[in-house]
Fold this sequence. Notes:
single chain; alpha+beta; Alpha-Beta Plaits; five-stranded antiparallel β-sheet; five-stranded mixed β-sheet; 9 helices; 19% helix; globular; disordered N terminus
Amino acid sequence: MTYVNVNMEQHVVLEGFPSDVGPAKKEKFRQVFETNVLKMQLGHTNFTLKLLDDANGFVVGAFLDCKTVTQADTAVAKLHKYPFTKTSEIKAYRWSDFTKFLETSEHYSAAAVTDASSAATGSSATAGDQQLVDTTNTFMLDPRARPQLLTKAGETYDVNIHWLNNTRGALDLIRGPSKDPECKLWSEMDRRAKRLQTGIPNPMPMWSPLGNYLMTQHPTGINFWGGRGFSPISEIPLAQVEKIQVSPCETFLVVWAGENYQFWHIAEARLIKEMKAPATGDWPVFKYNTSDELVGFVHKTLKGQSYVDIFKASTMVRLIPSNDPEARHTIHPGENERLTSFEWSSSNPNLYAFVVAGEESAGLRVHVERIAYSGFGDVADIVTLTRRNFFQALSVELLWQGDANSLAAKVTKLKGSDYTIFRVNSSTVSAESLELKPVEGKQVEALRFAWQPCGNRFAVIEQEKGDMDTPKKWAVFYQLEKVGFKELSTYRTEGHRLHWAPRGQRCVVSNFERSAIEFFGVSGALTERSPHPQFTMIANGQHHMVTGAQWDPTGRFFVTVTSSLEQQMDNGIRVWNVNGILILQEKMTRLSHVAWRPLARTVLSSEEVAKIRQELPETSRRYVAEALEEQQKTESATTKRKTELEGKYKKTMDAIQAHSVEHEWAVTRLEEIARAPAHKHAQKLLAELAAAAAA
């Protein structure tokens, strides 16, 4: 019997049509669907459509037969979840996918799992003859909880990934060109051009937001690496890429290539949509919420007006407000008004805020709103929680807190800047102005503001008002109370940048121009008499010609960098621990950039987190014991090596001495000296001198 192997990957199954298409409407429906959907979306006629009926003759689905597999892939990408009507959404599947699902075993068999050290060797798990793709952030499984650090340096722009070994104060290489020649691909564009690339927008490679992927640029497109050993995961086939953006949950990629924005699904390497829009100097242009479900875009017209379009991220279909179904934009201000900024909440995916500029006499207005979207259709419910006017304001900048529904608005006026703090509750929003009190008898104004990412505190750098060349500056730390703010402490400072640790209670104030670094943190235990923590200066340090700094994602280590992108001399890094003690200093020729590998979001419940916090003293003692054990092993290995070298040296010298005695080299040496003309001449001179002295 002969079997015919038919390539079913060219056939696409469609479903999700309206339920009222009966026999009388079938041909009319075919014409409308082919003209308005297939030809418009696919752009060609290289397909055959066959409608599928049920027992009563109503259309329940369709077969779309394409000429090539590539055309079938394009059809699935453009037709899946296509909103055909307000109540129906087309679903597209490859016929080959059904056969693959039918072949799936009903019994689960776990894949082979190697230990965390396999990342150093580049190994990966296999099942049979099929290579398994693992995108897990495997460094989080490290039993010693060491952070990972990416560096790019050297004359050939080598990219290396290291463990930070804080016990020895060293970087242990995990993967790099010296261990794996494939790592040379990570800086392929720089090697080809024989110079450092400007970046898109940062120098490549770069980490994804959760650290699951390492992204690199190549002549053929953008590659994603991940899993154990950083194996290739997917590729976005775009040669001319100018800027890229990855959504917070690493689901989507936005690419600016030439004249178009392209939206890709990263794991599937699938193009979702291509959009033509004018280029802007700001990046990112599209802003995703924290759940990757929605994305906002500030659309500016040639007439100076601006609107916000909010799209469903998976399909890039624009949402319309339920109270205005005819609206051309999701968020649109009134007449003679324009939107100046739009920001999603960094903790609540349904909250956002934006600033509206009206006429000159009206000043600026801040809106805080909540959006509710069911996930189906294109209608969203939008509720305005608060509006607040700021008269005579020149600009308003918005900054959400990391893990709480608090929003800071920096209001800039002719006479200076001040801050308003919005607290968003379940149904209400309160606003409080931050009044800057005089410091040391001097009137002050705000220079910098930064939220504590994992707490209810914030810091402000305040400087003396006036036109002096070097105004005095102070670092002031505040804590949010139920009502108002509590000033915790104030310190004189030279810095003008604030770096809060992502976790923990440390804050660094830096001044790159003066190479100054100041560590602040909580000290002392809380008591009834002192219920508020006191911020004190823990340490200060210097890093000559420093150009950048960042905390590692755990908040345990702080790295300062001298990058060749800004400074050609003394390139290198310095790593400080949480108490401001320098634990590592290393020079790196032509160091371009340094990046800690981000941590993925925790999957633990609040109860599990509370239990871990209770066990922190025991965990700390275990870490100290492990660090002491490693230090003892290192010292023992060093002592053993010294003993071996000393023994080898003594053995060699003893062998030389024995060889000399055996061959009577001492006697031979004296005989050779006696026969030497120089020795005879010296003896003659000594004799003459002795005779002269005697006379």
